[in-house]
Automatic annotation (TrEMBL):
Annotated HAMP domain residues: 167-219
Annotated InterPro entries: HAMP_dom, HATPase_C_sf, HATPase_dom, Sensor_HK_TwoCompSys, Sig_transdc_His_kin_sub3_dim/P
Enzyme nomenclature, EC number: 2.7.13.3
Chief place of localization: membrane
Organism field: Polynucleobacter victoriensis
Record has NADP as a keyword: no
Keywords: ATP-binding, Kinase, Membrane, Nucleotide-binding, Phosphoprotein, Transferase, Transmembrane, Transmembrane helix, Two-component regulatory system
Protein name per the record: histidine kinase
GO cellular component terms listed in the entry, alphabetical order: membrane
GO terms for MF: ATP binding; phosphorelay sensor kinase activity; protein dimerization activity
Length: 442
């Protein structure tokens, strides 16, 4: 049901209630007026005829009838005169007022007062005075009919006028409803012009602001989706690039180990053989010894370089074995640093294990290079919902934590981000730094 129809029905109900109240008051006033008139007229007629009865008590019928004819009709009363045998001798003439018209019986029953007829006994007959309020009731019915017609006319006029004006008043709200439906269908560019009326104008302004906010939210979501898609693309590209780099490192490490390692071993063997044969040539023997030394140092440097390119131990021993192998090499090169390793970890994919290894490797190298620690603790723990790697050193605390210009830290963060993890740095008040990687399990 529309607001316009509801408003018209509301006014119609109000008018009906008002007319009903007025009709009730009219009926009540008519009942009281008829009651007072009939009672008074009946009392007067009874008193007059009572006095007449005393005068004409012993007179014959002709004298009584002559008097009654001269008296005629007493207002709102019917007079009958009957003899001792109840034969009708005289009846008052009917009222000429609104002749042959009567109110409906239901209305007459509603208005009719209960007044008993008056009986006057004469010597030769009986005079009966009966109240007749039909004319007064008819007047009340006519007034009530006029009120009903006026009420219906007022109802009709009010609805016509109300329908017209209410239609104009609610037209802006219909425009607002159509705009809301258009917005619901996906038209986010819709706007409302200035609407007539204080309330409609306020709602229209609020609607325009709401649509503006919705558009801003949609644009923000679209930009966010684009950014996420771009980030995902960049993330995928970074992963592919990192994978490619790792593969290249793996191939390079294998080539160094297999090809260069064998060549250096052959050079050392040949140089040693020449050295044995050049006992009589000190100058040549000195050169071959330098060659053997250089080949050995190159071989040792290659062995130190290979784990940095690709931790071969991770393929053979797994992540825990690779970390332990790295610790053994670091202990040899850094005898003044105490290393501690704790691992509670089950085998994972190559990407995860390699990323954890690289982050641990970078964090330890940074500590050894910049913090001068005496102790480095590495703890790798696996819980029901995440993998946590913590590298703690007791060295010098950095003045600030920033990855600007530090490609190692950037690489650590990129690896953590690719795994959906979080890399954090915490400086202890007592000195030292904790690097923590937390990777949620999918």
């Amino acid at each position: 049901m529309s607001l316009r129809l509801k408003a018209n029905l509301f006014f119609a109900v109000l008018i009906i209630i008002f007319v009903s109240i007025m009709m009730g008051r009219e009926i009540n006033n008519t009942r009281r007026s008829v009651w007072e008139e009939i009672e008074a007229a009946n009392r007067v007629a009874a008193q007059v005829l009572g006095q007449v009865g005393v005068i004409y008590r012993y007179s014959d019928d002709k004298q009584v009838v002559s008097f009654l004819q001269q008296l005629g009709r007493v207002r709102a009363n019917e007079i009958e005169y009957r003899d001792q045998q109840q034969n009708l001798i005289y009846q008052s003439p009917p009222s000429p007022y609104k002749k042959d018209r009567f109110a409906p019986q239901f209305y007459a029953d509603l208005i009719m007062p209960k007044v008993d007829p008056k009986v006057i006994v004469l010597n030769d007959g009986v005079i009966t005075v009966t109240p007749d309020p039909s004319r007064a009731i008819l007047d009340g019915w006519d007034e009530l009919t006029e009120l009903m017609i006026s009420g219906l006319f007022a109802l009709l006029i009010t609805n016509i006028v109300g329908f017209f004006f209410i239609g104009r008043w609610v037209k802006p709200f219909e425009t607002i409803r159509e705009a809301i439906q258009a917005l619901e269908r996906g038209n986010h560019k819709i706007r409302l012009d200035n609407l007539h009326g204080k309330e409609a104008s306020s709602i229209g302004n609020a609607f325009n602001k709401m649509v503006g906010s919705v558009n801003e939210t949609i644009v923000a979501k679209e930009e966010k989706a684009k950014a996420e898609a771009l980030l995902s693309s960049q993330k995928q590209f970074a992963h592919q690039l990192q994978t490619h780099i790792e593969n290249e490192r793996k191939d390079l490490a294998r080539e160094l180990h297999d090809e260069l390692g064998q060549s250096l071993t052959a050079i050392r063997a040949i140089a040693s053989s020449i050295d044995k044969q050049a006992k009589d040539n000190p100058q040549l023997q000195q050169s071959t010894q330098l060659l053997v030394q250089a080949a050995g140092e190159t071989y040792d440097g290659m062995l130190r370089l290979i784990p940095k390119l690709r931790p071969i131990a991770i393929d053979q021993l797994g992540l825990e074995g690779a970390l332990l192998d790295m610790f053994n090499r670091l202990k040899t090169a850094n005898s003044n640093v105490q290393f501690s390793l704790s691992v509670n970890f089950s085998k994972k994919s190559e990407d995860i294990e390699l990323a954890i290894y690289r982050i641990a490797q970078e964090a330890i190298n940074n500590a050894l290079k910049h913090a001068n620690p005496t102790k480095i603790d590495v703890n790798l723990d696996e819980t029901s919902d995440s993998i946590i790697l913590a590298i703690k050193n007791d060295g010098q605390s950095p003045n600030q934590l920033s990855n600007t210009g530090h490609f190692g830290i950037e690489g650590m963060q990129e690896r953590a981000h690719f795994l959906g993890g979080e890399l954090s740095f915490e400086i202890h008040s007592s000195g030292g730094l904790i690097v923590q990687l937390k990777i949620p399990k999918s």
